[in-house]
Amino acid sequence: MKALSKLASGVHASSTLAIDALYKSMKAQGIDVVGFGAGEPDFPTPDNIKEAGIRALHENKTKYTPASGIVELKRAVCYRMKEDCGLDYQPENVLIASGAKHNVYLAVRALVDPGDEVVIPAPYWVSYSEIVLMCGGVPVVAQTRETDEFKLTPEELDAAITEKTKCVIFNSPSNPTGMMYTKEDLRGLADVCIKRDIYIIADEIYYKLVYDGREFVSIAALGEDVKERTIVINGVSKSYAMTGWRIGYSLAPAAITKVMSNFVSHSTGAPATMAQWAAVEALTGPQDTVETMRQAFEERRNYMVQRCNAIEGVSCLNPEGAFYIMMNISKVLGRQVDGEVIDTCDKFAQLLLEKGLVAVVPGSGFDAPNYVRWSYATSMENIREGMDRLEKFLATVR
To answer: Which residue in 43, 92, 105, 139 is a FRET match for 118, CA 20 to 30 A apart?
Structure first.
C-alpha cells in the first residue's frame, strides 16, 4: 500500500492529553493518584449558561447555522471584547469555531504556505508547533529564559525573523508558564512585527484569569497598525468553565476572517447550535462567576507557589495569569530514585507518577526540558496532597 501523508505522519499526539489519559487510567484501576495534568477548570459551567443551552434545545435551535457562527454570538463576542479589552470589531471580523485550538489552526491555515516560517516563543503550548507542521509550515522556536520571566524580547524576536517568516504566535497569559506581557512589552514586540512585516496570532484565551491586580492588555488594542496584522484568538472554555461546549472565536480583518471561514465551511461546519446560544449567555450575561473562579485560582496559585519554593531541589516563578506553574527541576536532574536516574523531565514525571502517585506534565512537550508543569485548576485539597507527595518523593532523591 502507498504511504500515508508525510504531513499527517509528522504530527504527534498532545503530551498534555497523554498524561491526563494515563492519570485517568490509573484512577479507573483504583490507584490513589492525584492529577495536575489537563488545563481544565474544575468548576461546573454556571447555571445561567447551562439553562441557555437547554432553552435553545426546547426552542428547537438544533439546525445548521452559518459555517462561521450565528450573528447573535458574533455580536456578543464584539460586545465582550469592547467591554473587556477596548477592541472595536464588527460581526464580519468574527469567526466562531470548535474551540480556541480550532481557531489557532484556522489562523495558521489562512496565513501559512508550505515552507513559511512561524516564530513560536518557548516554552509554548504543545499544539502550536504541531499545528504549524500540519499546515506545512516551519516552526522556529525562540527560547526565552526564566530570568526574563519567560518573555520574548523584541531583540530576540527580530533575530528569529527571516525572509521566510510569515507570523509569530504570542500567548498571554501563557500556557504553560503563566507569564503575561505588559503593555510596554507588547509595544516593543508589535513594533518589530510592523517593521519586519509579519502577522501576529495572539492567543488570549486566559485573558480573564489574571492575578495581583494586574491589567490585561490585548496586543490588538495598541493601534490600527497592529490590529490590521493581528488575529486575536479567544473563547469561553477557560473563563466560563465551558471546555466541553467547544466554542472558540477569532477576531481579525474581514479578509482574513473570510479565508478562515471558507476552511470551516468545507471541513467541520459551525459548532453545535445550542452551544453557540449558551456562549451568547456566557458573554452577555452576569460575569460574577468568572470573578469567583478567578479569586479561587489566585488563592490556589499562592499556596502552590509558596509550597513549591519551600521544597528543596525545586522552584517556580509566581505566575501572573492562567492556572499553571512551571516547576524548575534542573537541580534534580542527574540524581537517582531507587537506583533509577532522573535524566530527563519525562523520567522525572514518570517516577513522580509511579512512586509519588502525582501526575504532572513533562516540559519536553513545551520545549522546556528542565521543567514540569502543574495545573492548579483543581481543588485546594488536591493541591495540598500533591505538594505533600512531591515533598515526600523528593526526599527519596539521592
So the answer is: 92
